[in-house]
Amino acid sequence: MGTIGGSVAHADPAADYPAALQALEAKLVLKGRKSERLVTAADFFVDAFTTSLQPNEIIREVIVPVEAAGTGTSYQKMSQPASGFAIVGVAARVRRSGGKIAFARIGVTGLSNRAYRATAAEEALEGKAGSAAEIQNAAALVVKGVDANSDLHASAQFRRHLAVVHATRALMAALARTT
Fold it and tell me: What is the torsion angle, in degrees rounded to the nearest 10, for the CA atoms of residue 35, residue 41, residue 42 and residue 47?
């Protein structure tokens, strides 16, 4: 039987939790024999199978903030059929206020060597109404500057395409849940 902490500590670049924790702006409590520290999800994931955990630490707690009204979330992925891991997965968290997107958080997994937040896409949405064109334009930014993985399951080009498609789907679904 596995745990969320164990899966997160493994830091598989195709795991689902890292993208969700990025979008949720989660924090992790790392406990050592004589110490304890709080690390953001953004700072926790360093590289493929590499985290900021020290050799004597474990993940004691994963803290996810309580959402305010007007916030919607969604996770969309294309999974590898044998393992269920994401070929590409995108987690979206969006809050509306006054008919505009107050903030957007987008976590991506499977595309590169580690899960990451697509901050350029987030910034492109903030203050916008959330039209289909605005979502598509922002979704196109999730791959900007990213060195995409390529393996027997998907080429780098196909992963980039999947990331844009699933970012669009996740953002649309999250926005639909803000009402």
Answer: 80
Q: Within its chain, how far is the Cα of 24 from the centroid?
A: 8
What are residue 109's DSSP bridge partners?
Answer: 89
Per residue in 65-81, pLDDT tens?
A: 998 889 999 999 999 98
Look at the alpha carbons of 80, 118, 148, 19 in this order and tell me if their dihedral is positive or negative: negative
Closest C-alpha to 106, from 44, 163, 52 = 163
Could you tell me which of 93, 100, 110, 105 has the C-alpha nearest to residue 18?
110
pLDDT, one tens digit per residue, over 101-133 is: 999 999 999 999 999 999 999 999 999 999 999
Closest to 14 in 3D by CA, of 82, 97, 93: 82
* pTM metric for this prediction: 0.92
